[in-house]
Design a protein that fits this description.
The complex is a heterodimer of chains A (498) and B (321). By secondary structure, chain A is mainly alpha-helical. Chain A contains 24 helices and no strands. The chains are: A mainly alpha (498), B alpha/beta (321).
């Protein structure tokens, strides 16, 4: 109990509180800027925080991490541009809601869901760090491969009305994921001698292009035809009681999935968001609304991607190895400050764990408050005449994409992805499966090849976790249509009798 | 943010200004007043992402270098292609001392792995860090010493994780195989941390990684470090013997230097070499690097240049097999 008091007591320092405020403002600023990721801002901030005392320094870094993940949702909802892969699922329902004149309620729903998810994830950090980190350790290449294959079955969910076009789009994404140096042998594949493509297509540039830029292009062309509908009506802001009740189930599903996915190394908010959105749709009474502006879908995705934050910190601290690139920066700073991340940390310095959880909780509350406060201001953006808005979006996308790597190649990739996205949209192909294929394809290939390298096919077949995921993956694709057919044939059998 | 968004026109102006600033459109005056070098801002290109070990070394040094040179220095991260993107960019800059770069060991490796990088395009001005390789096994592994591991690897393939294809740790595994005639099978992961995690979780038989990457896990008894692949034991793990002590003369590891595009004017080079040497000796720099688990060094260009060429030759032969 004294560790809790001591850990939380460290937060009573005004310097720490000021650092949290600074971090929240900086994080929300960068989060709202498409392309500029939490990783980048935390990395840049770490150069300054290293000279500070550990607790205020941690306050800045962790608050930026939390706040950037919040700010991320705003452009996803308002202009269909996910700032980072973690908010891809936000565009599924958030943007349709905004188009239906419900931008206000979409923004608040997203903010509340994100806060709910973050708190859920923090519980994991406080109570389940050690056991979860053990589970994470049993995830080797074979298990990751199986998990990713399961993730790929989500294509069915995010394909929208036309499954065939969704599968085609996912296949296209898988092909794109082979660009770059071979993950095992290092041989060049479809890089055309461009050094920048050695690591594969830049995700963020592709995502911004396929979603944001393609949408702007689409609107520009549509506007010409005189059918554009500007988002003028923001609608209500606060969800009413029955809406709040409907959000409960997806929020719990999302938080649960996010908490588990977040604990795994190399899996983050993007996979959690999409998986949870898909799972929630299957369990929903109104699956048809998903993808067309469902508050449930928005809640499920956003609570999941934010629920990954706490477990990701907990795995990082408990294992002493970073779960994602933001955590790599945090752990580097911790080591330099003289802390010793690893299983021993929870025993030797439990107060630090509570301090970290406390910082993240305060950051969440503050960011939620700031989000609700500034939302009306942000959404004024939508009152702009469309041609001004488009310019703003394009400039933001260009600058943001360039800033990721200081690379013109990334900007070119984004513009090409924008044009491709426009054609896909016009021909009725959904964009989400492409991104899913691109992100998961790379993970699937690298982990499969690693597993084969380590122990051949038996490496996968002898892993119970991997087998379980593969079975679930096959079942989730084959069972629903089989059941439907079964039900239909039963009905047919019954008909002559009645 | 909300102030900016409240007034979209201002947002446009701000982002446009940001774009101009980012693309660096301020034209550099090339008056060649080398006598009072430096008379303008200096850029240091780091070929990796912000936040990594190379970035930390470069940024810490830059903090000291600014005082030494009395100039403001900007660190620019240009990552991608295992470092080739940033190095390629550096090679194309003017050799006037205003664009410097962090040269990692990959500078002499990439050219032999099909990347268009030539070490002679760069002029090393001083080595600042050294990252010896270590080889470690899971804590519950049956292999207690390097000899145990290598003996087992004579008859069967053992999987050895590393941070990526063509990385220095991948090469270190090959170097061990070459010296000991073993079948250590390098398994590339996507970065040092996942490679170490795989060993901690027992997914692989061993891992080759830098001292700073294995030290933390070793302290917590999650890993057993069998050997340091360096001439001397590492301060971070004084009880771990070197490979040489165990009868295998393998010394390989990462290093980092500050360099410039080839062809600096003599007086500019002198000024930079002196300043880098003083910065690398500073307490602040040494402390930060050592506390991150790596080794701060200060090796001038006369001594470093021959090593740089030797390393290049070594990797040429190592990768030609």
């Amino acid at each position: 109990m004294s560790a809790v008091a001591e850990g939380l007591g460290a937060l009573a320092d005004p310097t720490v509180l000021l650092c949290i405020l600074v971090g929240a403002l900086a994080g929300m600023l960068v989060g709202a800027f498409p392309g500029i990721t939490a990783t980048m801002s935390v990395a840049l901030a770490s150069a300054f925080t290293l000279t500070m005392d550990p607790i205020p320094g941690l306050a800045v870094l962790l608050t930026i991490y939390v706040a950037a993940n919040f700010g991320d949702r705003v452009p996803a909802i308002l202009v269909n541009t996910p700032g980072t892969p973690a908010s891809i699922s936000t565009t599924f329902d958030g943007y349709p809601m905004a188009k239906q004149g419900k931008a206000g309620i979409a923004l608040t729903t997203s903010a509340f869901s994100a806060a709910f998810g973050t708190f859920g994830g923090l519980l994991v950090l406080i109570f389940a760090a050690i056991p979860l980190s053990r589970m994470a350790l049993s995830f080797g290449p074979a298990e990751m491969f199986a998990l990713v294959v399961f993730g790929l079955t989500m294509v069915v969910g995010v394909s929208g009305s036309n499954l065939l076009k969704g599968l085609a789009a996912a296949a296209f994404g898988l092909v794109l994921s082979t660009v770059g140096r071979d993950p095992i042998t290092g041989a060049e594949r479809m890089t055309f001698g461009v050094l920048e493509l050695s690591d594969g297509l830049p995700f963020i540039a592709v995502i911004i292009g396929l979603f944001g830029i393609a949408d702007v292009f689409d609107q520009m062309l549509t506007h010409h035809a005189g059918t554009a509908t500007a988002i003028k009506n923001l609608g209500r802001w606060m969800p009413n009681r029955s809406e709040r009740r409907r959000m409960r189930k997806p929020a719990l599903i999302g938080t649960g999935i996010g908490a588990v996915v977040g604990a795994l190394p190399a899996a983050g908010g993007d996979i959690a968001g999409i998986t949870s959105w898909s799972a929630s749709r299957r369990l929903s009474k109104t699956p048809g609304e998903y993808g067309h502006g469902s508050m449930e879908g928005l809640t499920a995705g956003d609570s999941a991607s934010n629920a990954t934050l706490g477990p990701s910190v907990s795995t990082t601290l408990a294992l002493g190895v970073p779960g994602d690139s933001v955590m790599a920066v945090v752990i580097g700073s911790l080591v330099i400050w003289g802390f010793d991340p690893g299983p021993g940390l929870f025993a030797s310095q439990p107060d630090l764990v509570y301090t970290i959880a406390g910082i993240m909780a305060l950051a969440t509350v503050l960011t939620l408050f700031l989000s609700l406060l500034r939302m009306r201001g942000v959404s004024k953006l939508l009152e702009l005449p469309p041609h001004y808005l488009w310019t703003v979006v394009i400039v933001f996308c260009l600058v943001g994409t360039f800033a990721v790597n200081n690379s013109v190649v990334d900007v070119a990739v984004m513009l090409v992805a924008g044009v491709v996205g426009l054609f896909m949209r016009r021909l009725g192909f959904p964009a989400a499966p492409v991104v899913l294929g691109l992100i998961l394809g790379e993970l699937a290939e690298a982990n499969l090849r690693r597993a084969l390298e380590i122990g051949g096919v038996s490496e996968i077949l002898t892993s119970p976790i991997a087998l379980a995921f593969l079975v679930v993956a096959v079942a989730s694709v084959t069972l629903p249509p089989a059941l439907r057919r079964l039900r239909r044939s039963r009905r047919r059998d019954r008909r002559p009798v009645s | 943010m909300h102030r900016i968004s409240n007034t979209p026109v201002r947002a446009l102006a701000v982002s446009a200004a940001g774009l101009l600033a980012l693309t660096g459109c301020a034209d550099r005056q090339n008056d060649d007043e080398t006598a009072d070098f430096p008379s303008e801002d200096i850029t240091v290109v780091v070929p990796y992402d912000a936040g990594g070990a190379s970035d930390l070394a470069a940024r810490t040094l830059v903090g000291e270098l600014e005082d030494e040179l009395d100039a403001s220095i900007v660190v620019e991260n240009r990552s991608g292609g295992a470092g080739s993107v940033g190095l390629d960019h550096l090679a194309g800059q003017d050799a006037d001392g205003y664009t410097l770069g962090y040269l990692p060991v990959e500078t002499v490796m990439l050219g032999h792995q099909g990347y268009d990088i030539d070490p002679s395009d760069y002029e090393p001005l001083g080595q600042i860090v050294s990252v010896p390789a270590t080889i470690a096994v899971p804590a519950d592994s049956e292999y207690e010493t390097l000899e145990d591991l290598l003996a087992a690897a004579e008859d069967e393939e053992l999987s050895v994780a590393n941070s990526g294809t063509g990385s220095i740790w991948h090469a270190a595994t090959s170097a061990l195989n070459e010296e000991a005639g073993t079948q250590l099978d390098p398994v590339p992961f996507d970065g040092g941390a996942p490679a170490v995690t795989a060993a901690v979780g027992g997914q692989v038989d061993a891992v080759v990684a830098g001292v700073s990457e294995t030290a933390t896990a070793a302290e917590d008894d999650q890993l057993r470090v069998l050997a340091v692949l360096d001439d001397e034991r590492a301060d971070a793990m004084p009880d771990v013997p070197t490979a040489e002590e165990q009868g295998h003369d393998v010394s390989i590891g990462g290093w980092g230097a500050i360099g410039a595009p080839e062809g600096l004017p003599d007086d500019v080079r002198e000024a930079l070499v002196d300043a880098i040497s003083s910065a690398a000796d500073s307490e602040e720099f040494v402390e930060t690097i050592e506390s991150s688990g790596n080794i701060a060094v200060n090796v001038g260009p006369e001594e470093f240049q021959p090593f740089y060429e030797e390393e290049n030759a070594r990797f040429e032969s190592l990768f030609s097999e």
